[in-house]
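Translate sequence into C-alpha cells.
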Amino acid sequence: MTTSEMLGKVLSDLGRIGEVEACAIATRDGLLMEANMSTRGDPETFVAMSATMLGAAETATSELEKGIPKRVIVEADDGKLICMGAGPKALVVAMTAPEVGLGLVLVELAKAAEKVEKLLS
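Result follows.
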C-alpha cells in the first residue's frame, strides 16, 4: 500500500464519523496531500487557509510564550472547522455539522493526526 493510499484510509476512517462532513491532510505550508470532501468546495483552498490559520495561531501563542496550540477550532453558523497539527510535516483538517458535540470528533482527529505523523516520519 502506498503512502497516498494509507493517508486516504486515515481520511476514510475519519469520514465514517457521522459528524465529519469534510476532512483533509495537508503539508504544514498548505499543500493538499489527500481530501475526503462530501460537501462542495475546493479542497486546495480548504487546506491552504486552514494551514494559514494554524500557522498564525502557532505564531501568536509562541510570541506570548504559551507554547504550540494543539488545535484551532472555528465555529460558524453552518459548521465547525477543526485544524490539528500532525507532526512537523503535516496537519489534519475536519469540517463538522454546526450542532455536533466535539468530544468524539477531537478524539478521532487526534488519532488520525498521530497516524499521519507516523506515516510521514
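Note: DSSP finds three helices and five strands in the chain.
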